[in-house]
Design brief:
By secondary structure, the protein is of the alpha/beta class. It contains ten helices and eleven strands.
């Protein structure tokens, strides 16, 4: 049985409500060069729109292997925002797209289809993330690298091992984006409790796939759940992606909500880069809060990425049981990513 680490860890933090995607004053913010890898896809296009519509982003590079990428960039460039948008396509242009970027957001990969698990995506998306990580290590090693490509529990370790091999790994700058789990938890819990969703920020820890997703409903201030509601909400948050895949009936997976969540996390990172204090968000990073090398828990963000990995706090009996069941599965998925790089 895997056990959480006994090391004493700082637990003094407050999760602020997730902010809605919005503009920022140009005079109040440092401006950033942001590159989206997979920008022509179902997540990439709305993600690029949201990023380009924020005043912190003044240089937006869109990269994809799809030939429509320059057209997507041209389309976005007609919007009256400060962002200068440039499109890049094909492997020969990847380095130019990434050169000196401050933030790299990677939703590249194939989407899930009905009946497909995140694990089924592994062989295709693993190679894409490894290639992107190698290019980031060469072209912009100081960038914050935000991995959306599934399965995140494996692709983040792939990125880490690839960048280690290139001599450019900095654990403070590599993130697995789990923000969609938080936005789902906020939405579902607010609906259940009759709370204002804009005031919500439910901690969600662990990983980013099925039972590795653990919402900490016991830590929601003022909430009163029946056991039936707690079980139903936890299951829905864990498997919210399946709900979207089934509803789209073969037409895709969670693209718009993932784009929103990816943009939100990118903005949290940029706010911290700009010097804003106490920006805390749950994200999948290198961690020592459990026995596993990577784990999603609240992280205090700073100018250089991870400022401090925070402990997740106390669990109730229901959550502790789910944690114990989750850790072996998450460990297997992390190791799968590490082994992929070793074999390739």
């Amino acid at each position: 049985m895997l056990r959480t680490a006994t090391k004493k860890i700082n637990t003094s933090f407050t999760l602020a409500p997730v902010t809605r995607v919005r503009h920022f004053s140009r005079s109040a913010a440092r401006h950033h060069k942001v590159c989206v890898i997979g920008a022509a896809g179902g997540i990439g296009q709305p993600l690029s729109l949201l990023l380009g519509n924020n005043d912190m982003v003044t240089d937006l590079r869109l990269y994809d292997v799809a030939p429509i990428t320059p057209g997507v960039a041209a389309d976005l460039s007609h919007i009256n925002t400060p962002a200068q948008v440039t499109g890049f396509t094909g492997p020969d242009q990847l380095h130019d797209a990434l050169k000196d970027a401050d933030v790299v957001v990677c939703p590249a990969g194939v989407p899930r289809k009905p009946g497909m698990t995140r694990d089924d995506l592994f062989n295709i998306n693993a190679g894409i993330v490894a290639g992107t990580a190698k290019a980031v290590a060469e072209a912009c090693p100081k960038a914050l690298f935000l991995v959306i490509s599934n399965p995140v529990n494996s692709t983040v370790p792939i990125a880490a091992e690839t960048m280690k091999a290139a001599g450019a790994y900095d654990p403070k700058r590599l993130f697995g984006v789990t923000t969609l789990d938080i936005t789902r938890a906020n939405t579902f819990v607010a609906g259940n409790q009759g709370f204002n969703v804009k005031d919500m920020n439910v901690p969600v820890i662990g990983g980013h796939a099925g039972k590795t997703i653990l919402p900490l409903l016991s830590q929601v201030p003022g909430a009163k759940f029946s056991q039936a509601d707690k079980e139903a909400l936890t299951h829905r948050i864990m498997f919210g992606g399946d709900e979207v895949v089934e509803a789209k009936a073969g037409g895709g997976s969670a693209t718009l909500s993932m784009a929103y969540a990816g943009a939100e996390f990118a903005f949290q990172c940029m706010r911290a880069m700009n010097g804003e204090k106490d920006v805390v968000a749950c994200t999948f990073v290198e961690s020592s809060v459990t026995s596993l090398p990577f784990f999603s828990s609240p992280v205090r963000l700073g100018p250089n990425g991870v400022d401090e990995v925070l402990h997740y706090g106390e669990l109730d009996e229901f959550e502790a049981k789910l944690m114990e069941e989750m850790l072996p599965e998450l460990e297997t998925q992390i190791q799968k990513g590490i082994d992929f790089v070793k074999k390739n």
